[in-house]
Amino acid sequence: MDLPPGYHSKGECTSLIPMVCKLVKSLYGLKQASRQWNVKLSATISALGFKQSQADHSLFVHSSGSNFTALLIYVDDMIITGNDAACVVNLKQVLDQKFGIKDLGSLKYFLGLEIARGAKGISINQRKYALDVLKEAGVLGCTPAKTPMEQQLKLSKSDGEVLKDAGQYRRLIGKLMYLTLSRPDITYVVHRLSQFLAQPRVPHMKAAIRILQYIKGTPGQGVFFPIDSDLQLKAFCDADWAGGPDTRKSLTGYCVFLGDALISWRSKKQDIVSRSSAEAEYRSMATTTCELTWILYLLRDLCVPHHKPVLLYYDNQAALHISANPVFHERSKHIEADCHIVRNKILDGTIKTFYVSSRSQLADIFTKALGVENFLRLVNKLGVINIFNHHIQFPNTAKEAYESKENQPRALLLRGSVKAASPTQQ
Predict the structure, then answer these.
(1) Among 260, 240, 190, which Cα is nearest to 368's?
(2) What pLDDT score does 354 carry?
(3) Per-residue pLDDT tens for 68-103?
(4) Which domains does the chain have, with CATH numbers?
(5) Which of 36, 43, 138, 211 sits at a 20 to 30 Å CA gap from 2?
(6) DSSP 8-state symbol, 27
(7) What is the mean pLDDT of the chain?
(8) Could you tell me the sign of the dihedral formed by the alpha carbons of 54, 57, 59, 62, in that order?
(9) Rounded distance between C-alpha atoms, residue 82 and residue 71, angstroms
């Protein structure tokens, strides 16, 4: 590399005397900066006795007897929670000495997520972020829609006129993808529209505007975690066979509950074309099983025991028979071996499968566009609520729900650290 202007001596011949720069400290903007920052922060936290989770490397936990502390990191923003106030105070003091921190107090707003705690549980929504998206798109005065997508709407890569400004569509879809962190009700349609980023067309943009109309009517929609729920892990999964008109690939959709709390959901196109609906459904079960296995690892790192089998609900009898039958036959011998992780988990008792009727299949909302009645019914069953329209009791005193401020999650912002640029940080 070349030295900056002013570092060369007058009359110096740089071609004969090679000169180099030694990097003493990682600087903002360099490729290595974020990596070096993560290594330094992780080493500092690990030196205090914290253990890094193998399921999620951004999670650090500390357990000693009945005391437990957890720390979650996003670049240089972090959340600390636990029942050991002394450990939390000690951790904050060390971080303040090493890096300099700003304690933002009890967790209320974090990276666009708004957290509200009440006597009945915890609610997470992105109301401010949703309103900002509507404002930037110039549709604050639009007419609200009851569903995010028209039922039976077929979108293709070749239908309609190509958009003149493809960047506008891409930016909008990127913002909506971040909104799905707390909005499972728009996950399916955002996933469908994200498949046309290469060459978006007018029908795709109209469908994206429809999402904004739906958000206009429900800006405060978010997931709710009830405080009196049990710790039984259960999941619903479904598939839409050959749902993609361009590739004919099927779509996988699942949602995972811990008790009555929705903790994970996804809508994803399968990697290959399935030869039958049973194969598409079975691949959906395999994807859900992998997610459940990861969640079990995460619960173990959080010191949350889960000794019962995970309950997996499905509405396809053929897929259930394939998962329970250890014999390979004509209908399943072409399926890759990794898909049979479902069968292995059933045999070792980790997962127990059940049949559920199509009407009670909650994962339908992640595989297809539904009518108003079915859509609202499934949204309600997923535990997605709008706290600004519901009468939920919030604690007025420290004795309700969480008795001490020390036991509440706290948000911290590190000062003077190498910080990566993020469009989602507020």
Answers:
(1) 240
(2) 87
(3) 889 998 888 889 888 888 888 888 888 888 888 888
(4) 1-115+409-421 (no CATH), 124-221 (no CATH), 229-356 (3.30.420.10)
(5) 36
(6) P
(7) 81
(8) positive
(9) 9
